[in-house]
Amino acid sequence: MVDVLRVGNCSGFYGDRLSAMREMLEGGALDVLTGDYLAELTMLILGKDTLKDPEAGYARTFLRQAEDCLGLALDHGVKIVSNAGGLNPAGLAARLREISPEARIAHVEGDDLRGQGLFPGALTANAYLGAFGIAAALRGGADVVVTGRVTDASLVVGPAIAHFGWDAGDHDRLAGAVVAGHVLECGTQATGGNFSGFLQIDTTRPLGFPLAEIRADGSSVITKHGGTGGAVTVDTVTAQLVYEIQSTRYLNPDVTTHLDSVTLTPEGPDRVLISGVTGQAPPERLKVAVNELGGYRNSVEFGLTGLDVEEKAAWLQAQLEPHLVAETVAWSPLTLPPPDADTEEGATVLLRCTGLDRDADKVGKAFTAPAVELALASYPGFFVTAPPGRPAPFGVYRPEYVDRSALTHTVVHHDGRREVVADPPAYSEVDARHGLRPSPYPAPADSLNRRAPLGTFVHARSGDKGGDANIGLWVRHEGDADERYAARVTWLTKLITPKKIRELVPEARDLEVDVYALPNLGGVNVVIRGLLGAGVAASTRFDPQAKGLGEWLRSRYVHIQQDLL
Known about the structure:
With 565 residues, the protein is of the alpha+beta class.
């Protein structure tokens, strides 16, 4: 019998479905259950928590799940691995010991670089650690391992290292596990959540959380517990694979994964094989997520109804702007309503004014009072969608890089013993933008094409990576003959160029755009650099995390060859 490690996921973000841990433990066989609670924005939230309470800084929802389910996990022999420790993994480990004195709790630390003087003024500064600390804790007998800021995939890679005995030189195996971890890390996004093909999957029941059956060679099968909603298909797995990546080289602290080597093969209902993954030595330096308090923000949203919308907006801006003292004042784009709308809401567009400043007073009453004072003295039909609120603090995210010598990757075992995790024996000189594909082919002549939405047979998944927006586009798998699928993939890779993206996304016309080919996945990855400004917490964009950007792109009309339709 093939030795398989069954690793499940029960959380993709801080705020995910609370019942998921119990669902996964009761839904079928597992060896390890992981949970991802951290993101760049989450680190900012946890940093604010520690300003109020230095003993805070971890994901409280994980603690609630553990109170409910830790005994069940111990009874079933399931190990739990989670990054819910956030800024205070030692504090979370201590609380878990209070909940379950019989459980063997270990934690991983060393990622937190605050107080070292490397990033003065930073609210949080956390290096992305790898998986070997988690592996050491599991080999040491831990039932539960909680970490701070490790890479999301490390939650899956660590148990695989411990189970199969891999070492730092097993690059292809490690790379395979990184891909499995990347698919699992966002929970139900791998089983139909945020999936542009949702009409073809079971949405009558809550989506099941994914699990990976990892093999000794690093390959894996992605599946889910039987009887749960959603689906695991080549397309749902592709959707998560292309989510929030940069180039064809996926840099992790333990290995550099070649995303263009990934092969996906259906293996029956709700089963997709990941194979062929190759890797090389990791980069020498570690990425650091730095969050700083950027100041305060406030917004007022105005409704403009019916006729003369552009003139109404121009008058409002002319009246309001001379009285605003905020450092930054941003207005949302204006879209005209359809003519002769049969509801008032359909005839109304929203215009949002956002102010940002390091001084809270300048986006407090100094920002909202001038707007309120116009209620009877501005455009016809003046109204705001909600009473003006108080200023809220916002953070600014930026990525940094440090030498590994700047930190000590440490495991605190369940018995209190401390173990320092060794650095990798070798590194690669890796260009993070490897695989950048210039546009070698012209699109087919328009005379041979018909205009139709890009999403006619193309799926998309988009998201944020700091201030950059990432969009994965790939040709859907629908049982077409290989020749037709291949022709559609060729068409897509010819069509999607930086120039074409700037045409389809006018916001990007002055921004740097990179396009990376992923032929094994039947598509491309697009990175629009700087579209989200200083990151989600500081962005004034309508969709600050670019979650809907891919769906908008699918709705844009392009010229498609007749024989592909």
